[in-house]
Amino acid sequence: MESSEAPVVLMLGLPEGALGGIDLLSFTTTPRFRGVKGISTGLHFAFASPTTAFSERHGIWFDITNNGNPPDVIVTQWDAASEALVRITDETEILRQRANLGSIWNGLTPYRQEVAKTEGDDVEVSSDWSTLTASITPTLLSRLLGNGADWKVSSANSSRRDLEDIPGLVDQDLDLQPGEELHFLPIDLKQTWREGATGRERTDAAQDRSWALNNLTHNPLEIIGELQFCFLMILTINNFSCLEQWKRLLTLLFTCKSAVAEQPDLFIAAIAALRIQLQHCKDAEGGLIDLADEGGSLLKSLLVRFRKGLTGLDAIDVQDVVDELDDLEEYLKQEYGWQFGGSFAKTGLLELEDGEQVRMDTTAFDEDDETGEFAPQVVDLTPEQAKLLGVQDEVDLPQTLTRTSDESEDNQDLEDMDSRY
Ligand SMILES: *[C@@H]1O[C@H](CO)[C@@H](O)[C@H](O)[C@H]1NC(C)=O
Ligand SMILES: *[C@@H]1O[C@H](CO)[C@@H](O)[C@H](O)[C@H]1NC(C)=O
Ligand SMILES: *[C@@H]1O[C@H](CO)[C@@H](O)[C@H](O)[C@H]1NC(C)=O
């Protein structure tokens, strides 16, 4: 059987009706499900959860190198006792599983990532995994996840983090610690100047965080890679530590000025990566990522501030960045109805008549802007004024993850698997 040569990831021991997934595809497992075959070369992420309802998810990154003969067989096993997906590294066991492949071949589902998107009558097929992971490397995964045999990521119990059930609760309230096991780039937005800096230098570095960006890593591609990693760990397994880091990375990038002229390619890559990520939030069925609340005002205010910073730079140096930013804003206008420019840029904290407060200022997440230039002001607005300012029209960014709509459909046949992301 020629096709049995294809690279395979085995996901053994998953109970029937569990959630299984690889990359942008997820599915409900059937009794005969054993894994996925025909996986392309490159990095992939397999994940599982004992039920398709809100529960912990566990995933493993792996690299299909295809430089060996015979082709890669990655063996993972659901461990019922610890309710976790573990990677089997024992060579004898791997050999045994490899020898057994023929007998379970029909329980392996073909790897497909194409998502058919219906736009009017046109059907567009996208295969974005490689774009979404373009800057993720084995080196990056080893830094983030440790050098062990497993590149494991999990999501803690999500019940407490089920933000959609608790209106008004923002994730800061949840007292999330940065993932203990994730070695993120150390971003401290409260101290973006060099040790010992005082006075003017400190103020400048608070307003333009280029020093902090430049000091983060010697390899700027790590920043893009981490942005991509964090996003995918939000999308696939709801890891909120990654959501926090994703926001920190974006905040740092979009509060830089001089660095934009110095390394425009980094910013072009970041904006392009963000745009394709936002497209996947949009595609997610049943609102996989809830476009609500704080996240959206964060991104909007960051983009407004970022563009303002660009106007102070030499246009020739940053023209390509401006073009990329134009594309992103155009996308947000088209898909989410965002308006850029105009009065919301500096409005501050708005208190509506009913006492509800709406953050609209450019520094909502920017405690250390020392200028006071955008210091929040509390303004009383009538509903009409609020309407004029477009307050109620705020459209927002990934904040909470909600469940896909069709998860109650247990016992789906393998062939009914659908792409959800
Ligand atoms: C965590 O999830 C498991 C099911 O996966 C559940 O039995 C348990 O009660 C949850 N714990 C908390 C603290 O929510
Ligand atoms: C995110 O993943 C890391 C590594 O698996 C884990 O330690 C952490 O608890 C997770 N955080 C959340 C909020 O799910
Ligand atoms: C960051 O700054 C510290 C102190 O100036 C320096 O020792 C370190 O090498 C810098 N790191 C990078 C990546 O530039």
From TrEMBL:
Family the entry assigns:
Belongs to the AAR2 family.
AAR2 C-terminal domain mapped to chain residues: 184-340
What highest taxon heads this organism's lineage? Eukaryota
Looking up InterPro entries in the UniProt record yields:
AAR2, AAR2_C, AAR2_C_sf, Aar2_N, AAR2_N_sf
* Gene3D superfamilies attached to this UniProt entry: 2.60.34.20, Aar2, C-terminal domain-like (1.25.40.550)
What is one Gene Ontology biological process annotated in the Swiss-Prot or TrEMBL record? spliceosomal tri-snRNP complex assembly
**What is this protein's name?**
AAR2 protein-domain-containing protein
Organism of origin is Neohortaea acidophila
Q: What is the lineage of its organism?
A: Eukaryota, Fungi, Dikarya, Ascomycota, Pezizomycotina
- Return the annotated region ranges for Disordered: 390-421
Query: Where in the numbering of this chain does the AAR2 N-terminal domain appear?
Result: 7-146
The annotated regions of Acidic residues compositional bias extend over 407-421
